[in-house]
Amino acid sequence: MAGSLQIEIVRADQLTLADRVLWRAMTDANPDLASPYFRFEFTEIAGRISPDAAVAVLSRDGRTVGYFPHQRRGAAIQPLGAPMNDYHGVVAMPGEAPPLETAAALLGAPRLNVSAWVGPSGVGEPRETLMTITPEEGYDAWYAERRQTWGKYFKDKERARRSLEAEQGAIRVERGLTDPMLLDHLIELKRDQYARTGRHDIFACGWTRDLLHALMADGREDFGASMAALWTGDRIAAIEYSLHAGDRYHFWFPAYEPAVARCSPGILLTLDTMKLGCADGFRVFDFGFGGEGYKKYFCNASQGVREAVVLKPGLGAALSDAAVGLLNGAAGGRAERLRTSVRRRWAAIEACETTPANRLMGAVAAAGVAMKKATGRQASA
């Protein structure tokens, strides 16, 4: 009978060359681990930048069977790079990853938060990430199929392109950009967006900004991060920061100038980025989680993940279950959606902010935004 799983917690820079070779063999062998987030390069860089980062090395009978990169925030364990990590789980050979519940028990933390767990799990809610798999014939074949399926949508974007050029000047798109000043401009556009929409500013903490810069500056051949940008005349209208590895291109942080929003510069940038990316050998374009309506027009494939909060058995878990039941009863069954929204907001705040005081300030600000929205809905009703 095989022995029980053992765990050792180390820093990413303590992993040996043999570990790195095994890690790459695992990601190459397991199609579920094709995302750039599972590459050792991501863990190596994020492990230097994210506070309290570590890797759990799982072994059985003296043989390493998996790796789980993570970070600690107070009593919680989160995937490494959260809240900006769109895929996570135990890096292992096919069929050898332990279930989420087992990984949580081995880590021993009071709470493990995951938003996109890849691998076996008997807990949590199913979610889907959306992606486009382009045909061997390339971008033009993909676009022809999409335009036939969603003719009205793509004809509208073709009109938007003509309008943007007529009003602002000729459109030019480039990808593979690594200018740090351009990244700073993108980050400021995102921060303005967070302020307008009342979302937590994930870049205020500093280390998240540093992570994007470090990934972009790394410059390895088969892994990296870069930007694409769309200019109208001599002005930037849209920028997107992406992560890529192998033939997979993961759209990550898009931003556009609000003044030209009605011409859909972000959508036009995505289309042109895919065209340029296909020419450079990328075949899978990952859009992350659904939610934004435009993604259904682009995507023809998906990957199932799990979102969960695993609590250590005991009083905390019992009180949490009781509170959820009470809220659902009081709200006629509608509290679960509110609870999910609040949990996601809190997870982002907890991941970004590394001190109790900053986490408290973030929670107070988020509560104020939620109260304001609720009051507005009541007034409208």
Description:
- With about 375 residues, the chain is an alpha+beta fold.
- About 45% of the residues lie in helices and about 25% in strands.
- The chain has twelve helices and twelve strands.
- A twelve-stranded mixed β-sheet has the order 1-2-3-4-5-12-6-11-10-9-8-7, sandwiched between helices.
- About 5% of the residues have low confidence.
What order do the strands of the largest sheet run in, or round the barrel if closed?
A: 1-2-3-4-5-12-6-11-10-9-8-7
Q: List the uncertain runs.
A: 315-333
Distance between the termini: 63 Å
Strand content: 25-35%
Gyration radius (Cα, Å) is 22 Å
Largest β sheet strand count, sense and barrel closure: 12 strands, mixed
What structural category do the secondary elements indicate? Answer: alpha+beta
- Rounded mean pLDDT is 89
Give the number of helices. Answer: 12
